[in-house]
Amino acid sequence: MGKVTDLQTERRKQLETLLQDLSGRAEIGDGAFAEAIYVTVSSGFVTEEQFRREFGLSSGAVERWTTGKNLPQPEVRAVILRWAVSEIQNNGT
To answer: At 11, is the secondary structure helix, strand, or coil?
Structure first.
């Protein structure tokens, strides 16, 4: 494996761990959720389009999630993060 591939694999593992840890919390705060979505989308492992398709979101909704301007209800945040982990794992194979 080359250095770029190794780095990408390490980044993927770190992101998976972050999202799994957050989704296991009893409550995911606004800031933590927004940052997790921002990091997920900016990593390129899950796109805004994938989020929109999966959750029936309008254009711009994911961007609003990343800035904390309009967030999903607290009770569905863990579901969203677990879905993101599965997408990262599926896209990584």
So the answer is: helix
Q: How far apart are the C-alpha atoms of 60 and 19, rounded to whole Å?
A: 22
Tens of pLDDT, residue by residue over 26-74, are: 999 999 999 999 999 999 999 999 999 999 999 899 999 999 999 999 9
CB 88 within 8 A of CB 15: yes
Nearest to 16 by CA among 66, 87, 93: 87
Phi-psi category of residue 59: left, alpha or beta, with phi > 0 → left and psi -120 to 50 → alpha: beta
Sequence-separated (6 or more) residues with CB below 8 Å from residue 80 = 37, 51, 55, 72
Contact 22, 15 (CB under 8 A): no
Closest to 16 in 3D by CA, of 66, 68, 91, 77: 91
